[in-house]
């Protein structure tokens, strides 16, 4: 964690939630997050609950994000949600390229880059997820994969697009798996990503938040956050438990 970059901790609820449990979770987060003043915290509920979350978070420091966004502005795209719609419902962020979208919905680097652009064009902050599979890691391709995923966005929108974006390094083998990258292994990837951006613009690289995701929990967050290029976390399973998520947020300033 560097003092130059305010930490960002995001809770990806995935396809979980119900009106009653969301209300209880958000109420606890609202009450508990008054202690986290020097960082940004956001929750990413499923689309149907964005309105509920926006109402319950009104006036709170907690931001709202969407788990996905369409590349299209409007029209005959059944099941898709446009970036402008997300803005109308109070979203500040949108995840793009989560590994579950890449693997279960065959999202390519090119499509993810278009989603990044669509989100940004509507005023959303894209959270661009990058990460290698276990097979790719085992053959030493971690950096090749994450750089390819990053380059798809840089080639299309340029380095300045990263001035208003967050990167989330999420090794696929660590997501929902109960095992996490060591702080050293994650730091090495975060540093390499930052150096890659710095080749184009050092100031943007210095300010760019690169958060880690993959089985972050209350008991491993502080060690991860101690690494100089880890600027927060994208949290899945642990984001559904208020006490656990709040403990992760508190680990930013132990
Ligand atoms: C995620 O969904 O982005 C994620 C990191 O999940 P988990 O924390 O459950 O591994």
Walk me through what this model shows:
The protein is of the alpha/beta class and 254 residues long. The model has no long low-confidence stretch (mean pLDDT 96). Helix 7 packs parallel to helix 8. It has a single domain (7-231), classed as Aldolase class I (TIM Barrel), CATH 3.20.20. An 8-stranded parallel barrel has the order 1-2-3-4-5-6-7-8, surrounded by 6 helices. It is globular, with a radius of gyration of 17 Å. The chain has helices spanning 19-32, 50-56, 83-88, 99-104, 109-121, 134-138, 142-157, 183-198, 202-207, 218-225, 242-250; strands at 7-12, 39-44, 63-66, 93-96, 125-130, 166-169, 209-213, 232-235. Helix content is 42%, strand content 15%. It has 11 helices and 8 strands. Residues 12, 14, 170, 175-176, 213-216, 234-238 line the site of phosphoenolpyruvate.
Based on CA atoms alone, the radius of gyration comes out at: 17 Å
The biggest sheet, with number of strands, parallel, antiparallel or mixed sense and barrel status, is: 8 strands, parallel, barrel
Name the CATH superfamily classification. Aldolase class I
Class by helix and strand content? alpha/beta
CATH class: Alpha Beta
Biggest sheet strand order reads: 1-2-3-4-5-6-7-8
Give the SSE order as H and E letters.
EHEHEHEHHEHHEHHEHEH
Indicate the CATH topology: TIM Barrel
- What is the CATH architecture assignment? Alpha-Beta Barrel
How many individual helices?
11
Distance between the termini: 12 Å
